[in-house]
Amino acid sequence: MTDTRIIVGAIAGAYGVHGEVRIKSFCAEPEAIADYAPLTSEDGTRTFDLTLTRAIKNGFAGQIAGIESKEEADALKGVTLFAERDTLPSLPDDEYYHADLIGLTVLDTGGTELGQVRNVLNHGAGDLLEVHGPNLKASVLLPFTMANVPTVDLASGRIIADPPEGLFE
């Protein structure tokens, strides 16, 4: 079964003493995280009905239904929040949810398999695809740019890559 959920944020602990939580949003429009409720925990066993109350440094303060004390809010620290894929906005043709890229097979422009996308990383200078394969001694970080990755075909589960010379030696 493929997971139909996308990570949209995380709970960073309590905010104040009345059960509010600190929310880190991973959404392109950060305040939109509340629009995707109900949100679920990573394992899918808990559901959170989130209402944002105000913007704070590095995120938002919010209220989760049923959480009424600082202790209850602190107990949720570190919980990642997921939304159902069909509640999220559609993306333009050249944008992808990271979850859609993980697991895709990476081929070079000649059709030779380079590996699979294990992760999508971003250290501030743009996305990097972490490619792992049987012929690689270590994972390779492929810059996710139009020049290096001209084709992403989600339907066939493939990425066509034109990596910089020497990257996959």
Highlighted features:
169 residues; mainly beta; six-stranded mixed β-sheet
Note down, in words, how this protein is organized.
There is one protein chain. With 169 residues, this protein is mainly β. The protein contains two helices and 13 strands, in the order E-E-E-E-E-E-H-E-H-E-E-E-E-E-E. Strand 8 and strand 9 (113-122) form a beta hairpin.
Q: Which stretches are poorly predicted, pLDDT < 50 over at least 5 residues?
A: none
Task: State the helical fraction.
Answer: under 10%
Query: Termini, distance in Å?
Result: 35 Å
Percent of sequence in beta strands: 35-45%
On the 0-100 scale, what is the average pLDDT?
90
**Biggest sheet descriptor:** 6 strands, mixed
Number of strands: 13
Order of helices and strands: EEEEEEHEHEEEEEE
Strand arrangement, major sheet:
11-10-9-8-13-12
> What structural category arises from helix and sheet content?
mainly beta
Q: Helix tally?
A: 2
Shape: elongated
Determine Rg (CA atoms, Å): 19 Å
In short:
By secondary structure, this protein is mainly β. The protein has two helices and 13 strands, in the order E-E-E-E-E-E-H-E-H-E-E-E-E-E-E. The longest helix has 5 residues.
